[in-house]
Amino acid sequence: MAKLYFTHGPMGSSKSAMALMTQYNYEQQGYNVLLLKLNIDTRDGAFIKSRALTTEKPCILFSADDNLKEVLLREEIKGKKYDAIIVDEAQFLTKSHVEELKDITIYKDINVFCYGLKTNYATQLFEGSKRLCELADSERELKSICKCKNKATINALKINGKVVKEVLGNCDILIGDTNSKDIYTYEPMCYKCWEEAESFKVEDLFNNNSQKIEVENIAQNESFVHKKVEKI
Ligand SMILES: [Zn+2]
Predict the structure, then answer these.
(1) How far is the CA of 105 from the centre of ligand 1 (A)?
(2) What distance separates the 2 farthest-apart alpha carbons in the chain?
(3) Residue 60: helix, strand or coil by DSSP?
(4) How far away, in angstroms, is 150 Cα from ligand 1 center?
(5) CA of 143 to the centre of ligand 1 (A)
C-alpha cells in the first residue's frame, strides 16, 4: 500500500532539493510525478526551487480552500496517471489537506511525499506539520547547522538583527528566506543560541513609532500572509 511521507527540517536543510531528487528518481524509472505547492508561498511562483541545487521545476499551485483529491482528479482528467505526489512547503497545508493526502495514499494507492518546516519562528508546530506528524507513515528529519556548529532546530525570525520570539499580532506565518535583504530574515539556530539571542520585543512597538511603522510596512507588502497582522 502507498504511504504518506513527511520530511522536515529547518530552513537551509535542502528540503526542496530532496523534493526535486525524489521527483528525478521516479521520472528516471518512467513514472509520473505531480508536484504541488500551496499558493500562499509567493517567493517562486508556480515552481519548486532548490537554492542548494540552483534548479527549479514547474508545479501546480493550489489554494487553502482546494480539496487535494479534486486537484488530483483535475490533473488526471488532462490525461496523465500519477505514480507519486510531492508537496513542497508542506507546513502551510491545512489539516484537511493532510487528511485528503492520506486518503489519496489509501484509496488511490499513490505515494505522497511532503517536505516542510516543522515549527514556525515562535517554535510552535505549523498546522500542516502537526497533522503530518500525526498521520504520516514515515517521518524523517533533515539536518541544518547553527552558526555555533550545533544542530539547528529553530527557524529564527530576525527583525533589524534581533530575534522575534513571540507571534507578531495574529501572524504565525511569515514568508521569508535565509538570505533575504528585507527588513526581516530567517536564520537556522540551535535552541541555546536562540534562547540567548537579543530579542525583538513586541511591546517595544508600542513605545517606538519608527519600529511600529516598519512592522506595519511589512504587513502591507504581502509578506504577512494568510493571517493579517493585527493593527498594532
Ligand atoms: Zn547555536
Answers:
(1) 38
(2) 61
(3) strand
(4) 5
(5) 13
Cβ neighbours of 135 (radius 10 Å): 15
For ligand 1, the distance from its centroid to the CA atom of residue 190, given in whole angstroms, is 4
What percent of the chain has pLDDT above 90? 59
Q: What is the pLDDT of residues 39-89, one digit of tens each?
A: 887 677 788 887 777 788 889 999 999 999 999 999 999 998 999 999 999
Q: Are 61 and 34 in contact (CB under 8 A)?
A: no
Indicate the helix (H) or strand (E) that contains 139.
strand 138-141
With 0-12 / 13-18 / 19 or more C-beta atoms within 10 angstroms meaning exposed / middle / buried, residue 72 is: buried
Taking alpha carbons only, the member of 22, 18, 16 closest to residue 43 is: 16
Is 89 catalytic? The answer is yes
Q: Are residues 18 and 123 in the same domain?
A: yes
Whether 4 and 137 have beta carbons less than 8 Å apart is answered as: yes
Q: One of 27, 70, 76, 89 is an active-site residue; which one? A: 89
The answer as to whether 191 is a domain residue is: yes
Do residues 101 and 69 make contact, with C-beta atoms less than 8 angstroms apart?
Answer: no
Domain count along the chain:
2
Q: Kindly state the cell numbers that stand for 118.
A: 516543522
Range(s) of the domain holding residue 39: 4-141
